[in-house]
Amino acid sequence: MRGYVKRVSQKAGKLSNEQLISLLDNMMEENENLYSILECISAGLLIVDNDFYLQQSNKIVESRLNFSVYLDDPKASSCPIWEIMEDEEIGQYFKKCAEKEITNTTEDFTIMTSGGSVRFITITMTPLVHDGKTTGKIILVRDVTEKKNQEVLLHRMENMAGLTNLAAGMAHEIKNPLGAISIHIQLITKALEKARANNDILPPPKFVEEHIDVVNDEIDHLNKLIMDFLFAVRPVNASLQLKKPGILIQNIADFITPEFHDNDIKVKVVVNDNESRLLIDEKLLRDVMLNLAQNALAAIKTKQDAKENYQGEFSIECASADNKFYIVVSDNGCGMKEETVAKIFEPYFTTKANGTGLGMTMVYKIVKEFSGDIQVQSQEGKGTVFTMVFPLQNDAKLAIGS
After folding, report:
1. Quick one: how far is CA 225 from the chain centroid?
2. What pLDDT does residue 11 have?
């Protein structure tokens, strides 16, 4: 059709009125077909010029993104697109693309609906080319919430698969106290039967009580095993959103630094990446960092009490590499024995007199909920290093001027 119109336009002066009307009708029909195609696309569509002024859109994009005006309102095309965006982060993203002349990029975002639920969207931008020149941008907006939820569900199912070994170990642990309970109940039963057969003469003093004490101890042991198991398998109540961890970590460091300085402890914070985003729960990541910081503070203070002329140091470093985000938390405190390191993430394991033994287990569970991994290295008397690794959510790189 485009080639036909071009040829006809070259001969427009020679066409009759009837031919011109027919041509106009054909063009209107073709235009209506194009509009219908745009409306049938499942993704939201925005077409903007090089200055990001709106040229064209489809209806579905208004269900994917929140705008301060309807897109068919003349106000929508009278300013750059970021000025009518309700979501500040997405607006800043479009503004950055305009300022840096970015034409090829894909980025993920989380948005809050009016009902308070979280939706995941992917925005893909490609150049609009006409006669060999870039005349604007084509922006596709896809709702990938179901895909993200499936990925989270799959990750949790993988974690659940690991519970098979945990359950097997639990069954083995339960066997021993059950066996002890069975033996002592049998001894009590035989003692009672013997007493009845011997004119109800009771066994020696505290004979029955001693067996009952053992039974009660084993019942307590069983109860602890079961509570440990339930804590280990209970899911973390996380509300995952795409957030920038570098900014959050810097804020946490600013919060905890005064307490360390009050205890004459140096604090080093290095955030090499403030832009990368992770699928995390901000509150839970804050819980992880505060727990590690408090453990480091306790370890350093223990070493301060035992060693003169010792300077305590605490460090948080984070950076991205190879599509992963690294958070390293370290201290030069008292360190841990090898057997402590081996059990540090187990429920109810603690070396503190007033500790619950649940803090590091929760740290481990939260890191796993974020699809990450955590490792610990420690040497008694020298210090401890925790390394957390998380997958970055978007592989795409911004193409500047491409």
Report:
1. 30
2. 60
Q: What angle do CA 70, 73, 75 make, to 5 degrees?
A: 105
Phi, psi of 112 (to 5 degrees): -100, 130
Strands 265-271, 312-321: pairing is parallel
At residue 111, the pLDDT reads: 81
Geometric angle at alpha carbon 91, from 85 and 95, rounded to 5°: 130
Task: Give the mean pLDDT per block of 10 residues along the chain (402 residues).
Answer: 56 68 70 67 86 89 87 89 89 91 85 75 88 88 80 61 57 73 80 72 67 79 70 70 90 94 94 88 92 93 88 94 92 90 74 64 87 91 94 52 34
* pLDDT, position 59: 85
Q: pLDDT value at position 153? A: 66
- In a 3-state reduction of DSSP, which class is residue 387? strand
Give CA 339 to chain center in angstroms.
30
Vertex 53: Cα angle to 52 and 59 (nearest 5): 105
Helices 282-306 and 245-262: crossing angle, nearest 10°?
A: 30
Q: How far apart are CA 123 and CA 396, in angstroms?
A: 11
Query: What is the C-alpha radius of gyration for the chain, rounded to an integer number of angstroms?
Result: 33
Whole-number pLDDT of residue 396:
38
Rounded to 10°, the helix 207-233/163-197 angle is: 160
Instruction: Please report the beta strands in 131-277, taking only residues with DSSP state E, as ranges in sequence order.
Output: 133-143, 241-243, 265-271
Helices (H) and strands (E) in the chain, counts: 11, 13
The distance from CA 210 to its chain's CA centroid, rounded to whole angstroms, is 52
Of 141, 120, 143, 369, nearest to 237 by C-alpha is: 369
b (16+ CB within 10 A) / e for 130-164 = eeeeeebbbbbbbbebeebeeebeeeeeeeeeeee
Kindly give, in sequence order, each residue whose CB lies less than 8 Å from that of residue 152, ignoring residues fewer than 6 positions away: 240, 279
Answer whether 71's CB lies under 8 Å from 54's CB. Answer: yes
DSSP 39-103: HH-SSEEEEEETT-BEEEE-TTHHHHS-BSS-TTSGGGGSSBGGGGBSSHHHHHHHHHHHHTTEE
DSSP SS3 for 337: coil
